[in-house]
Amino acid sequence: MACGNNKAGCCSSSRQTEKTTSSCSQAAAEARLDASPAKTVACCDPDADERCDETCIESLAAYECQKACDDAQGTAEHDEHVHEHDDDGKHAPVACSSHLRLAFERFSSYLESAQCICRSVIANHSLTPCCAGQATAALTSAVATSSAAIPGTKRTDHGHGHEHGSEKGLLSADSLSCCSDDHGHDHSKDTGVIKGAVVDLEKSAGHEHVLLSVTGMTCSGCGNKLSKALQEIPAVFNVRVNFVLGNAEFDLNTNEISVDALVEKVDRVTGFRCVKSSNDDQHVDLVVPGGSTGLTVDTLPNGATQVDVLDAKTVRVAYDPSVLGPRDLIHALGDRTTGLTPINHKDPSATAGRKRLYSMLFKTTYAAVLTIPVLVLAWGHTMTDMRTKAIVSLVLATGVQALAITEFYKPAISSLIYSRVVEMDMLVVISITAAYVYSVVAFGFAMANRPLQTAEFFETSTLLITLVLFGRLVAAYARIRAVEAVSTRSLQPTTAILLEGTQTREIDARLLQFGDKFVVSPHSNVPTDGKVVDGTSEVDESMLTGESMPVLKQKGSQVIAGTINGSGTLTALLTRLPGKNTVAEISNLVEEASSHKPKVQDLADRVAGWFVPVVTAAACIVLIVWLLVCLLVRHESAGGAVGTSITYTIAVFAVSCPCAVGLAVPMVLVVAGGIAARGGVIIKSAESTERAYRVSDVVLDKTGTITTAELEVVEANLLPDADDETLTITSALVRDNKHPVSVAVAKYLEDKPYRRLENIRIIPGAGVECLVDGTTFCAGNARWLQAQDHPQVSRIINQGMTTLCITRDSELLAVFGLKNNPRPEAIPVISKLQKRGITVHIVSGDEVKAAEEMASVVGISRQHVAGRQTPADKQAYVRNLMEEKKVVLFCGDGTNDAVAITQADVGVQIGSSSDVTRATADVVLLSGLEGLVLLLDVSRASFRRIAFNFIWSGLYNVFAILLAAGAFVYVRIPPAYAGLGEIVSVLPVILAALSMFWTRRSFAN
């Protein structure tokens, strides 16, 4: 009998920056074993953001099984250890059932949490780590396929229980690999390397994904400046900057430049403050009273991967959570640390922004304190003589001007010299410099008793600087409030109740580690993702899924970090660590989506790019025109004409502001993504928000999307040719398959005898098949098995039921009829979509009759129903609609829908919290079909606000420049007040974005 259920790839990328098509076929990956014990496990790249899957556990189980067999050689225990050997006496590349069961019990909790199971096994089995050589191993090793599929493979029953095969090309135990390329890894890691291309392995080993926390960015111009500075460094690629959240991420070839050197260079070029953040490894920030200089990776226990010095007495230690836990780390350090740094309750992006806010508050206050006396002297009626007024004003104005050096001059000049970019700060610099220099010159002439016709106006430069700072202060505060309002990171609880034996104690949630059990008290927050092992309660998950009804949790249920427990007490086994759980995952995706630039952002960047040259040209024209007007029309003196024209020119420079244009798109996307996430809609790409408001057609899968995922067997018919083993084989075929039909039949047959089968092959959109003792058994739909014309099958199909047929060598043995009910929200959601003029379609792999019956129940026209659709047919259906110039949204729930999801303009998948990063869709719905309406509402609201922002920023700059230039003659903006342009132009843009948060309760109503 051949065996081994096919598995998916060993490690799948947890973050996808591009849409990828899931493979429809899945290949089995078996351990390479030799007669001698394994010495090396070639595991995943430890720097990759990837996860192992069940194949890794199977490989490790096979290794342990072989080792146990070899250790017991020649003993009674060896004879009782039933497995098979080949003619050469070699051990089979599969584990016996007992070792397989034990391995899954030990390591299954790692699947949703650890980046690599293999590293934990390496540490615990004293195997030689070879992760650094993974790139080479991935190119030089091949995956051995199942021996049943290889002609000429001999299998002999050696009385031992494993199957052993002598397969040509099998690798030895010394190169045991659980993570080769055939397992589905994406070792390119979104670095821009095309799969299959020839890669310099020596250089690729030095690639590192870097995340920087950046303070000092105030608008999209700042973001573009940072992006350009990074892109000009040859070792940097795949740059993404989000100035709203204050971060930048990119890939770096550390063979050419180190991260520290790069950060120092970027700080110098841009004038911003950049700090490296950790986004891949788990880390803790520790207080080290004795000083941080002596703490290195070499002095830390096995599992610590990096030490970063934050300040004289604080270090950040990154560690591999599958090898080392934070409590173990602190225990190992002993007296060298007093523990963790104080808990930060805020979102990291908001925290960095708040530090910047406090700095700007101080600078604004400082400038205001010096500016007020200057204004009083200039505009008030005081008894002070003119000479004293001028001297005091000069001193105070110089103090304010000194503040502008770090805030305006340094970044503007650095950008001009290093990046060759004239940015918005340069407009302010020109304005305040012209006003201050002219005033100093006029002051000098006045002190020489040769006053100019236009006297000094120090109040202009001081008030201008103060108002610009105040405008940026208000804008920064509004941005922080926006980030905090929609942030999901704040949902992460800070403490947890740890269960140790029968005792409990409260600990910092950051100290949780794998293997921990935690207690969730009544009406408290769940500290991190876990699996309930004891207790029953109802949990409010509305803050993540948008579902208002509490969800029953009992033994075996999954609990999600940040959700609120009801009146019961739960005990859960930790499955995902804080910082890597659902809350963190959703936050990362929302932030990543907001850092992507949709097409409309390109338009905004182009407009902002031309803004400074256009304003400069306009200011020059204003200067020339007013000089001519003053000299030729008003017949003023040359000195008076120069003074007058300079005031108008300064006003033009100061009042213009491209920040509103730059903020128009990213501010809205940040708020929209956060609101959608709070409603259980995870938007993974900014482009989907841009496209969703134009959707004309929504295509829905049937089973699991329109209907509930759970089917019910309502009819089971055994045909005359069936025997006693038919139901046993059927149960084995469907038991490990996750398709809703298989799950329902497996549940129906759960009390029947079970027989373990090997080499079960999954055919997406069709069914499963397996070779049993030379006979082929199949379980699948009637069309695939060509049984649709059989009287029993056709009768069930005509009743609108879903069918599962069982055949033996093409001979029909049994047919099951299944039904399911539409989701409770399906009918109202479809009705809302249709009222908006959106055409709703059903495409299903089920029979046409079943699909049409469901369509009539939920209110969809039969002309928009397609049954008997394979994955390729679904893709073609979507493509045909798109060729008719329709904007198509496809919504499905499984692997069968992956190609159609990828094809559609907006791909949506209904999933659970664990599906968020694995899904290939643009959008993941955690709240069911109601999320479709919320997605469309958020997209429409975003588009309207982006349009308003563009219109407002355009109108403001046109009229503000005309007023500042004196185009309306009797109405103008004095240069002293032109600094208000920052707040007048930017604040409405921010408020427009925030209004989405204030009105979010109206979405989807």
TrEMBL record:
SUPFAM superfamilies: Calcium ATPase, transduction domain A (SSF81653), Calcium ATPase, transmembrane domain M (SSF81665), HAD-like (SSF56784), HMA, heavy metal-associated domain (SSF55008). GO terms for biological process: intracellular monoatomic cation homeostasis. Gene3D superfamilies: 3.30.70.100, Calcium-transporting ATPase, cytoplasmic domain N (3.40.1110.10), Calcium-transporting ATPase, cytoplasmic transduction domain A (2.70.150.10), HAD superfamily/HAD-like (3.40.50.1000). PROSITE patterns: ATPASE_E1_E2, HMA_1, HMA_2. InterPro entries: ATPase_P-typ_cyto_dom_N, ATPase_P-typ_P_site, ATPase_P-typ_TM_dom_sf, ATPase_P-typ_transduc_dom_A_sf, ATPase_P-type_domA, HAD-like_sf, HAD_sf, Heavy-metal-associated_CS. Keywords: ATP-binding, Membrane, Metal-binding, Nucleotide-binding, Translocase, Transmembrane, Transmembrane helix. It is found in: Membrane. The chain crosses the membrane at residues 360-380, 386-405, 426-448, 460-480, 607-634, 646-675, 950-971, 977-998. GO terms for cellular component: membrane. Residues 208-274 form the HMA domain. GO terms for molecular function: ATP binding; ATP hydrolysis activity; ATPase-coupled monoatomic cation transmembrane transporter activity; metal ion binding. Coiled coil: none annotated. Belongs to the cation transport ATPase (P-type) (TC 3.A.3) family. Type IB subfamily. This is Cation transport ATPase.
